[in-house]
Design goal:
Helix content: 25-40%
Largest sheet: 5 strands, mixed
Strand content: 15-25%
Strand order of the largest sheet: 11-14-17-12-13
Distance between the termini: 41 Å
CATH superfamily of one domain: DNA methylase specificity domains
CATH topology of one domain: Adenine-n6-DNA-methyltransferase TaqI, Chain A, domain 2
CATH class of one domain: Alpha Beta
Radius of gyration: 24 Å
Shape: globular
């Protein structure tokens, strides 16, 4: 699930024999999926043209049985609100293991049922806010996919060098950028690398600052990022909790720094911090030794090759963890500083868009959470496509 959507193309699959054996958890088009274990409260709407699917044990579906009693859009809007999150926050820590909202607990959650016509009018006000938040997420995803493709082309596959070596102009590059790439390769311990580049290690261009902090030193409203807030295979960290929930020592990070999930590194949790805050000790803070190396550093840390390396070198069987000691030894091809600077400029522009969308989405979510209780209570009345105060207009 990502940004309110179910990513069917990225889901694991089972065959028809396994499907026939399963008696519970079979979803249907129109369901609302709710992550109930580990990361509690992640939501996604199942489209009406969805293929057959089964929910994992960490996910439950919420299904409207009577569309004349409960509107799907209204239910989704309510489930995205603080009125709903307060209910699962109250039960998710009741076990000694990972956070969990059991099916029994979920059946006790309260959902308001105003008249269906009012539900639909409320949904018409709230849904555009949710749609814009989801649009921001999709735009972020597109930007990071393009940035990852650029990094792979320039720094892993060396496409511009391949083109110039064959006597062709690199596709899509401005002449001044193309001029930064050589037209030949040289042998190295990593195999052929562009002429003029050198073999180095992550530790040559990056540090792992250790800024430990105790709960008493942290303001309750300080953003907190744990592994549960970090999406898989996404460098955009849009979610965070607050330090009010922190009960043990954590690490400080600054806006623009790179966070790397070291617990079970195969989960591929790497991203750019969009604000100052504190993070779990299972999250490593990584910074470039010089700003010009930021793009090269982020590109490698978020690459499949680096994730495979950290997974293979991690210690522990049940809860494998990588370490900065192993991460910093990872060998890479280092380009001239002028080319590294170009990539950094690109990644910083992408990060600036992420930050803008982060601020905008937080504002929209706050507006949604302010509006919904007022709409439900009647303090604000919904007319034809608008909301107005009961007293006054």
């Amino acid at each position: 699930m990502d940004g309110g959507r179910v990513l069917f193309d990225k889901a694991s699959t089972i065959n028809a024999v396994a499907l026939a054996r399963i008696q519970k958890g079979k979803g249907k088009p129109g369901d609302i999926l709710f992550s109930s274990k580990g990361t509690v409260g992640k939501l996604a709407r199942v489209p009406l043209d969805a293929p057959p699917f089964v929910c994992s044990p960490q996910t439950t579906y919420w299904r409207v049985l009577d569309l004349e009693t409960l509107d799907r859009d209204f239910l989704y809007a309510f489930m995205r609100s603080r009125l709903f999150s307060d209910q699962y926050d109250a039960v998710k820590g009741e076990t000694d293991m990972a956070d969990y909202a059991s099916l029994t607990a979920q059946r006790q959650f309260r959902v308001p049922l105003p008249p269906i016509a009012l539900q639909r009018r409320i949904a018409s006000v709230i849904r555009p806010l949710d749609d814009k938040i989801e649009l921001n997420r999709r735009m972020n995803r597109t930007l990071e996919e393009l940035a990852a493709a650029l990094f792979r082309s320039w720094f892993l596959d060396f496409d511009p060098v391949v083109a110039k070596a064959a006597g062709r102009a690199p596709f899509g590059l401005a002449p001044e950028v193309a001029a930064l790439f050589p037209s030949a390769f040289t042998d190295s311990e990593l195999g052929p690398i562009p002429q003029g580049w050198r073999v180095g290690a992550i530790g040559d261009i990056a540090d792992n600052p250790r800024r430990q902090i105790t709960p008493s030193e942290v303001a309750p409203e300080m953003p907190y990022i744990g592994l549960e807030h970090m999406p898989r295979k996404s460098i955009c960290l849009m979610e965070a909790g607050t330090a009010a929930d922190v009960s043990s020592g954590k690490s400080r990070f600054a806006s623009g720094e790179i966070l790397f999930g070291k617990l079970r590194p195969y989960f591929h949790k790497v991203g750019i911090a969009l604000c100052d805050g504190v993070c779990s000790t299972d999250v490593l803070v990584v910074t470039p030794r010089d700003e010009l190396w930021f793009g090269v550093l982020l590109g490698h840390l978020s690459s499949e090759e680096f994730i495979d390396y950290t997974d293979a070198s991690s210690g522990g069987t049940r809860m494998p963890r990588t370490s900065w000691h192993d991460m910093k030894l990872y060998k890479i091809a280092l380009p001239p500083e002028s080319l590294a600077q170009k990539l950094t400029e690109h990644y910083r522009r992408v990060a600036a868009v992420f930050a803008h969308h982060h601020r905008e989405s937080r504002t929209l979510a706050a507006l949604r959470d302010t509006l919904l209780p007022k709409l439900l209570s009647g303090e604000l009345r919904v007319g034809a496509g608008s909301a107005s105060r009961e007293a006054g207009s």
